[in-house]
Amino acid sequence: MSKKAVVLVSGGLDSATVLAQAVSQGYECYALAFDYGQRHRAELVAAKRVAEAGGAREFKIIELNLRSIGGSALTDAAIDVPEHGGEGIPVTYVPARNTVFLSIALGWAEVLNADDIFIGVNAVDYSGYPDCRPAFIEAFEQLANLATKAGVEGHKLHIHSPLIKLSKAEIIQTGTKLGVDYGLTVSCYQADEQGRACGHCDSCYLRKEGFAAAGVADPTPYFS
């Protein structure tokens, strides 16, 4: 019997790479995305493409209304998406997002009898996000094993974050070797309805720099 894993899939290149890694390790993957009130739906369309192309057994979108609490440039239209640069925690940080996402992934994993959850967080390029640090992943894994029926009954739950210490170039090189089609992905914080990128936000900058450093052609369509 195949081992099962829930894989968080956002539509971006990191999660596409993580899905490919999980599949290559023999997991039967259940891809999970969130419609959480983000600025655009292009990433959800991309998440579905990535899940289907990546061989996920099932793809599910969970609806959450994080826009109702705001506090981020990604969920509050009154906060502008910044150009590249700045210090401290970026305004694109969505309060508690990864904690909420992992909690729901944990619930689905219990239902599926899956002991593994994969998430594409990265502490190198996104060091300003508190919920992308190794300490957070370790703490959540401890919580997962304390807070679940599966954990209490001895089914140790594992939170995998295989990209957490890789540069964007290393992530792209890893995915390219696994056959990931990055043309299916959307990374831009303010992509248009066709999924075209702005080319100016932090995410676009990191993506462009990553492809250049990896020596891989950038398949991203830009609207400006």
From TrEMBL:
Q: In which pathway does it act?
A: Purine metabolism; 7-cyano-7-deazaguanine biosynthesis
Q: What's in the keyword line of the UniProt record?
A: ATP-binding, Ligase, Metal-binding, Nucleotide-binding, Queuosine biosynthesis, Zinc
Q: Name one GO molecular function term.
A: ligase activity, forming carbon-nitrogen bonds
The entry's Zn(2+)-binding residues are: 188, 198, 201, 204
The record's listing under CDD domains reads: QueC-like
Locate the residues binding ATP.
Answer: 9-19
E.C. numbers: 6.3.4.20
Task: Tell me one GO biological process term.
Answer: tRNA queuosine(34) biosynthetic process
Cofactor details (free text): Binds 1 zinc ion per subunit.
Q: Looking at its record, which EC class is this enzyme?
A: ligase
Needed cofactors = Zn(2+)
User: Mind telling me which HAMAP family this protein's record contains?
Assistant: QueC
In the record, the note on similarity to other proteins reads: Belongs to the QueC family.
Q: What is this protein called?
A: 7-cyano-7-deazaguanine synthase
Q: Which gene encodes it?
A: queC
